[in-house]
Amino acid sequence: MNARNIFVFTLILLAIVGLFTSLFGNPLGLVKQLLVTAAVIGIIYFIYRRWFSGRRAGNSNEQRAFLKAAKQSKKRHKRKSSSRPQVSNVQKKRSIRKKSNANLTVIEGKKNKKNNRASF
User: Fold this and answer.
1) Is the pTM of this model over 0.70?
2) Residue 19: how many CB atoms within 10 A of its CB?
3) Do the Cβ atoms of 63 and 57 come closer than 8 Å?
4) Residue 30 CB neighbour total at 10 angstroms
5) Of the candidates 44, 18, 46, 48, which has an alpha carbon nearest to the alpha carbon of residue 33?
């Protein structure tokens, strides 16, 4: 164990001892302290989510515009897919791919030829 692990272990052990001492010595005070701590953590979390997290995500107007465009795109895509005539499975199987009009040629390379290093 290195020094950092020993320090963390000691700190956790002291926290547990203090928790049990407070629990047996003043249980109502412990509950009150835990509630205050939870409230402070909740307030800090709320402030962080409200102000700092919103700035990182971008401008809220930009976010609204993006959501509006996404809705319109979904509606448009839904309309296109529903207006397409239904094709039966038999017709789908019969459809043949069109041949491409591109004339492809093979260009011979120098892959297998050995370089003459003396000419360099």
Assistant:
1) no
2) 12
3) yes
4) 17
5) 18
